[in-house]
Amino acid sequence: MDGVAVIRSPTIGGVALGSPLLQAALSGYSDLAMRVLARRHGAAYALGEVLLDQFVVTAGRHPRNLARLAVADEEHPVGGQLMGAEPDQFPPAALRLVEAGFDVIDINFGCPVKKVLGRCRGGYLLGVPETALDIVARVRDAVPPHVPVTLKMRRGIDDSAESAERFWRIFDGAFSRGVAAITVHGRTVRQKYVGPSDWSFLTGVKRHAGARVVFGSGDLFSAAACVAMIEATGVDGVSIARGAIGNPWIFRQTAALLAGAPPLPPPTIHEQREMLREHWQLAVALHGENLAGRQMRKFAIKYARLHPERLAVRDAFVAVKMNADWQAVLDRFYAIDGPGRDPAPDIDETAECRIDDDAGDAAA
């Protein structure tokens, strides 16, 4: 990097953020436990996993459902993200998220997953501006004025002129209907997660937006990449998605670079051990030990990328079911301290908006 990026402290409506570093909504991942760890390690704001509007409205008092709506006192401000197809189903879902304690309501118009598109949700709505803007208007009218409404978009369905025209209709129309900020991912829906994110498109979006708040997303797998996006595009902040799974240190590392400090090294083995213990405890408190074992395996696979023996550690975590199993892996692989490794080269193609059947898809 040639210089130090300007450190922004953006606002989302009346919600002030302490830095430009956001954790994106990650289906099946960004529950209370992940969000709390992100906030403790430098994220200024985090979004809960994307939830279907119908699930939010119909979810009863079962602990597993309530866990998906849980908000911790220490994580404010926190956003809740909704996905759906029918405009009239969004308002009651948005109101329930507000009642649950979410400070911001985010609407997902970006998910590229085939099952989601086939049910006229997520990125599908970028092709039908009238429906998309009807959803935006209804949510804005439904929630209290002090609760900001935001939007997640991709740069279009594809690279056609028609798709670009629809993008701008939704982008400008959403702001005119009271949206406080928009996050733009630099890939098209058709790309899914293949090929690079087009940061030059984000540059044009922010130039067009002017003072309106725009966050950038796509290919943010390291602190250097996060700073580079801010410097190159001028966006008001970065929404870190797959790069934050199993690596909450990315927020602290990015903050250091933004402040002009030398790059921070990957966390040591003992630092990783303490994070794994902390995450496990939060997950057990949220989900109970049985479900936490299943939930934490997918996180542990991501954490393993930072360990020098990543493949052996990954395989050991796959077998974890209960607390004793978890602690046994820590005792075996994390007892002796040493340097960690950069996980960025091992990032996979986990979709941010993948909908688990267990996350409410059956209610659709």
Task: Describe this protein's structure.
The protein is an alpha/beta fold and 364 residues long. The protein folds into two domains: 16-264, Aldolase class I (TIM Barrel, Alpha-Beta Barrel), CATH 3.20.20.70; 269-342, Orthogonal Bundle (Non-ribosomal Peptide Synthetase Peptidyl Carrier Protein, Chain A). It is 42% helix and 12% strand. The protein is built from 14 helices and eleven strands. An eight-stranded parallel β-barrel has the order 3-4-6-7-8-9-10-11, surrounded by seven helices. β3 (21-23), α1 and β4 (45-47) form a beta-alpha-beta unit. The longest helix is centred in the C-terminal third of the chain and has 19 residues, at 269-287. The protein starts with 10 loop residues before the first strand and ends in a 31-residue tail after the last helix. 51% of the residues are buried.
At CATH level 3, the topology of the largest domain is TIM Barrel
- Highest-level CATH class of the largest domain: Alpha Beta
Beta content = 5-15%
Estimated radius of gyration: 20 Å
How many discrete domains? 2
Distance between the termini: 46 Å
What class would the helix/strand composition place it in?
alpha/beta
Shape: globular
CATH homologous superfamily title of the largest domain: Aldolase class I
Mean pLDDT: 91
Number of helices: 14
Uncertain segments:
1-5, 355-364
* Helix share bin: 40-55%
Please give the number of β-strands: 11
Q: What CATH architecture label of the largest domain applies?
A: Alpha-Beta Barrel
- How do the SSEs run, as a string of H and E? EEEHEEHHEHEHHEHEHEHEHHHHH
The major sheet is characterized as: 8 strands, parallel, barrel
Strand order of the largest sheet: 3-4-6-7-8-9-10-11
